[in-house]
Amino acid sequence: MSSSTINVPPQFEIVDRPLDTQMTISMGPQHPSTHGVLRLELVLDGEMVVKATPDIGYLHTGMEKLFEYKKYQQGIVITDRMDYLNPLGNNLAYVMAVEKLLALEIPERAQTIRVLTCELQRIASHLVWLGTHALDIGAMTVYFYCFREREKILNLIEAASGGRLTPSYFRIGGLMMDLPAGFERRVKQFLDGFLKSVDEFHTLLTGNRIFQKRTQGVGIISAEDAIDWGLSGPCLRGSGVNLDIRRANPYTGYEKYDFEVPTEPDGDVWARYIVRMREMKESHKIVTQALARLKPGPVKADAPKVVLPDREAMKNHMDALIHHFLIVAEGFDVPAGEVYMPIEASKGELGVYIRSDGGPKPSRAHFRGPSFVNLSALPQMAEGAMIADVVAIIGSLDIVLGEIDR
Amino acid sequence: MTNGADNEQALPGQPSTTSTQNSTPSPLVTALQREHPDWITEVREAYGEVTAIVPRVHIQAVCSQLKSSPEARFDFLADLCGVDRGPEEEPRFEVNYHLFSTTIHHRVRLKVLLTEDDPHVPTVTGVWRTANWHERETFDFFGIIFDGHPDLRRILLPDDWQGHALRKDFPLRGYEPYSLK
Predict the structure, then answer these.
(1) Mean pLDDT of successive 10-residue segments in chain A (406 residues)?
(2) Is A333 in the B-facing interface, judged by CB distances under 8 Å?
(3) How many CB atoms lie within 10 A of CB B39?
(4) Of the candidates B84, B98, B102, which has its C-beta nearest A227's C-beta?
(5) Domain that holds residue B103
(6) Of A6, A7, A358, Cβ closest to residue B13
(7) What CATH number is attached to the domain comprising B60?
(8) What's the pTM value of the predicted model, to 2 decimals?
(9) How far apart are CA A78 and CA A68, in angstroms?
C-alpha cells in the first residue's frame, strides 16, 4: 500500500535528517507513567529532552456538550467522571455554581458534611498521587500502603453516598441524604490511625536517598513562571506562592476552619511532594474540626421547587409528591445569568463557568480543570531535563486525564 | 450604578442587578473605563461578579493594563472560555476571560463579543502564557480565531475533525461516525 493514500497531518510526517543527533519519540498514549492516555512527543538529544509537546484528547468524551442537553441535577453525575480521583470536589464546584445562580442558602450541617467529605476525598486523591508517583520513580512499597489507607476513605464515602469512585453525593441545595448512623465513629477511627500512616510514608520516602536524588532539583519552575502558566494548587504552592482558594475566596464555610497553607520555596518535584504530604495532615486537621462542628440539623435547603422532598414527605403530602414529579420530569428553571465558581480541588483551582438562559438546562457549562492548566506548563519544566526525569515531573504534577480531556 | 449607559450591547436575559458585595473590583474597572472610555463599553455586576465588556481590538491593552496596574494586579488568568449564544443571536460568540489576582484575591470577568462572520480576536498569550491552551481549546470547540497565537491547532479533537463541536448548530452525536477517511 502506498503511503500517499493515507492523509498524514503535517506534524506527524517523518523528516529524515541523517546528520542530526536528535531523535523524536512518542511517550504514550499507552505508557504506565503518563497516568492515563497522555501522549508526549519528545525530541531527545541523547537522554536530554530538547522539546516536549503534550498531545491530549484521547479521553475526550464531549462532557461540556453533554451538559447542554442534561438538566441541572443530571449534570452532577457527569462531573464525577472528570477528575475521578476527586469526584466530590467536582460535585461541589458544580452544585455551588448552580446554587449561586439560584441564590440558595445551604444549611449548616450540609456545609459541614461537604467540607468533611471533600477533605477526606482530598486525602484519598493525594494518596493515589503519592502511591503512583513513588511507583513511577521506582519505590513500589509505598503504593500498597497508600491504597490501604485510600480503601478506608473509599469505604467511608461508600457508606455516606453508596458510591466509591463516583459518589454524586452532593445535590443542588444540599446533600443526597444525611450521613449514616455510626459514620462519625468510623471517621474518628480512620483519623486516629492516619497520622501514623503519613509518618510511615515519610519513613519510606522522605529519608530515601534514591527518592531525594530523583526529585530534588528536578523540574524546577519559579514562582513568576508558575503564576504566568496558571499553575494552581500544590504545584503553585511548591513554588513558594501562598495561594489557596479555600483561604483566598472562602466557600462552604472554610473561613471558620483553622488550617495552614503549606508552601515550599524550591519549585522542584521534591517541593511539590513535601507540600502534598503536609496538605494531607492539614486535611486531617480540617476533618477533625468538621467532626466537632457536626450538629444535628437539616441537610437540604428549604427550596421545595429545587430540592427533592424526603421519601416520607412524599408519601404523606400531595405538594411534596407534585414537586418530586416536576423536578424529576421537567427539572427546575434557573435564573438567567452567568457565574464562575472556583474551588480548591485536590489538584488546584477547579473553576466552573455556568451560563443559564433561564431554562432547566445550562446553555453553557465550562470546567477549568486544574490538571489541564498544570499539564500545559510541562514543557517549561521538562525541557532541558533527562528523559527519566520527565516521568518524575509528570508524577509531581498529579494530572488526571479524565479532567484534562473532559 | 456601574452600568455604562453609552453602549447598549445587552446580553439576553442578563440581570444587571447591582449587588452590595464588598471587595469586588468594580471601582477599578469603572476607573479604567473613565480613563479609556473606548476600552470598556459596559460594566455590569451580577451574582457578586463583575463583568466588563471589551471591544476585541482593545483586549490586549486592557489585559496588560489590568495585569500591571498596582491596584488591580490581575496576574493570573484563571480561565478563558468561549460561549455560543446560538446561530440566531448577533453577535453570536463570546469569549470570557476570568482574571484573578494572586495577591489581592479578587476576580473580574472580561467579555469579548464576536460575530459569526468575523470570529477573530487578538491573542493574550503575550500577557499570560497559560492562555495558550485555553485559546486552542476555544478555537477547537467554537472556531474562534485568536490572531497572533503561536500554535493555534486543535487540542482535544483530532486534527481532521470537521466542524466545531460546541457550537449550538453542531448536533450532539456529530454528523457522522468518526473515520480516518
Answers:
(1) 59 66 82 80 86 89 91 92 91 93 91 93 93 88 91 93 90 90 92 90 88 89 90 91 90 90 90 92 92 90 88 89 91 91 92 91 92 91 88 89 88
(2) no
(3) 18
(4) B102
(5) 26-147
(6) A358
(7) 3.30.460.80
(8) 0.88
(9) 12
